[in-house]
Design the sequence.
């Protein structure tokens, strides 16, 4: 996969109500996918999940999700910087409909699944929130669909909030070998960047390979962009000063068990030791929202 193919610009894979539609066949891999659905006020969209399990995750707005005779009302949120959201899980081989009385934008991270689990509701109150790093490497992680948190067949997903000027996904790490402390996982980063008073914001994403499996990407990422990571070290994700960064991590792989195990680039793991005497960025506390960040739902 070329560097240009790894960076998917906003709307490059749009069609109909889908603002983005990245399946395994588009990414050139086997398991991992992401769709972003945009609905007007009162709008709805029906679709089948085929061989994929999915989560309906509100990025902005509320929704009603119907699947296999179940109905889930998602309170959602004003925008990705407004706090943690509730969500709905959709199994493979299901028919579903997403409706939004007020309109909204909804991410559907997906994974090619073998096992068919029942549709379920995930309450916002049940999402574990953690602060990672310290100082200028502080970020907040919402672990809504991680192993041990929410059951799924292969899908692993979380959200990361990085305050303006901070670095996250750092030290760089990878998960492309099956060995102790590491699992094979394809990964998608989907970005939303807060706008500034003069217009859209931006950030940067770095990906690089190993001698045996070269890769190289340093991309300027903007609102709605995605980065595909089939292998290699990834990080840092850099929020430019003045512009808070959100990204959704979607992962899936061939392992017999559903696990997220990653290893740091040994050249940079020493940086973790510098955090011991640093506090977390105060903009991330309380963890419900970034303080002083404008809602991005009117982008």
Sequence:
């Amino acid at each position: 996969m070329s560097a240009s193919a790894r960076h998917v610009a906003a709307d490059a894979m749009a069609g109909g109500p889908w603002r983005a539609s990245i399946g395994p066949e588009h990414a050139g891999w086997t398991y991992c996918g992401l769709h972003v659905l945009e609905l007007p006020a009162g709008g709805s969209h029906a679709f089948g999940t085929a061989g994929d399990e999915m989560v309906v995750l509100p990025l902005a707005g509320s929704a009603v999700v119907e699947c296999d005779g179940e109905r889930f009302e998602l309170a959602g949120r004003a925008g990705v910087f407004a706090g943690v959201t509730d969500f709905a899980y959709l199994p493979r081989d299901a028919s579903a409909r997403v409706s939004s009385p007020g309109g909204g934008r909804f991410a559907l991270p997906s994974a090619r699944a073998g096992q068919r689990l029942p549709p379920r509701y995930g309450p916002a109150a049940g999402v574990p929130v953690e602060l990672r790093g310290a100082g200028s490497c502080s970020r907040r992680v919402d672990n809504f669909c991680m192993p041990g948190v929410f059951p799924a067949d292969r899908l692993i997903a979380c959200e990361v909030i990085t305050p303006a000027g901070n670095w996250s996904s750092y030290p760089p790490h990878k998960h492309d070998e099956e060995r102790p402390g590491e699992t094979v996982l394809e990964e998608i980063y989907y970005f939303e960047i807060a706008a500034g008073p003069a217009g859209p914001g931006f950030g940067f994403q770095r990906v690089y390979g190993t001698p045996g499996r070269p890769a190289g990407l340093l991309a300027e990422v903007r609102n709605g962009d995605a980065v595909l990571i089939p292998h290699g070290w990834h990080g840092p994700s850099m929020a430019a000063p003045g512009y808070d960064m959100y990204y959704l991590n979607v992962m899936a792989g061939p392992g017999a068990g559903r696990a997220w195990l990653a290893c740091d680039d040994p050249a940079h793991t020493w940086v973790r030791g510098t955090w011991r005497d640093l506090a977390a960025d105060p903009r991330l506390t309380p963890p419900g929202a970034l303080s002083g960040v404008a809602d991005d739902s009117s982008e």
